[in-house]
Amino acid sequence: MDGQQRRMSIGSYKKLGDDICRYGLCIRQCERKVESLNMKQSNIELEMSNLGDMVVAKIEGKEDSAAAVIHKLLRASQSEQLYLKYVHGILGVVALLGEVWTHKLSSMLSTCLGEDQMLAVVCKSHAGARALENYQMDGTVNCVSALDILAAKFGTSIKGRCSIICLEDIRPYMRGVGRHPQIELAFPPPSLSNGKTPPGFLGFAVNMIFPPAEHLQIRTASGHDLRETSFSRLLGKLQVYQSREYLYMARSCIEDGAVSLDGGMIRGNGVVSIGSEEPYILFPVNCLERQLPLSPENVERLKRMEDLKLELKKLELKQTQDEIQEEVRTMEKFKKKLVKKLQYKRQTDDQLVPSPGMDNSDMDSGRASG
Fold first, then answer.
1. Measured between alpha carbons, how far is 11 from 18 in angstroms, rounded to an integer?
2. pTM of the prediction?
């Protein structure tokens, strides 16, 4: 090999090494971009899960549940609603009768209640609750559940039991203070042995959940709202803390259980719930303005805005997913090129390794003759 060939060979080998480094860097850049896009996708999905429309879709997706049938009924035409007596007394599913300010709070309260209670059907009166149990026709009582008949009309069937919450049968909590924008239940704050409120205590869960605008005016015959009745019944004196550390510090003054925004949970009576799992059915998350009294026109306008927001989020999610797929395809191309370069480098390295029978003098003479 003459000097010019040797210089060209050295130059080619150096370029090969540069190409390998470049493809490696390109692959790493693609990996970082995919990581970032995956995080963006997760955030979009999280935001979507907090929208009321997405909660509705999840409920109706549970086709064999009473909650799905009831919600379809409430969205059905007037003629379809006539099949069920006292339909006007059915308010809906627990998950859609309350909203909170943050996803963390929604996740913890939904987890604490459990899916069965989140999908419980809420009725104003005892008559409304009874109407779901028995179907009356021609003055006789049919043992077939009214919900089963409704489900059949919607082309489905109901499996398992369903909890029905009757507002007028709940003993309301009578002590309230002010309006924010509803009456807050005046529970005495928890107190440590030194008489002070535990650090990190954010409030009682029942005062941190709000009916959406369209349900703010709901009252029982005796004038009590959803917070004083259904949410008081479901959440009791459940306390909310900033972190697990504060939660465990306050365990001596926890009565009906407590949760922390970082995932801690005490069920009460010495029972601690550990682990983590994002609940499928969540309370919607909305800003304060959603809990202010609105006219029917503004409620409808707000509903259209929420529908539009969901559609925009779906579009953003689709674009992000397309970007991820494109980035993954690009990364695979770089990986294939890198594999080829590495294979070629191994072949080149094998050619540069001296044969077993060649000693140093042979190599020196070979280099001298070159």
1. 10
2. 0.64
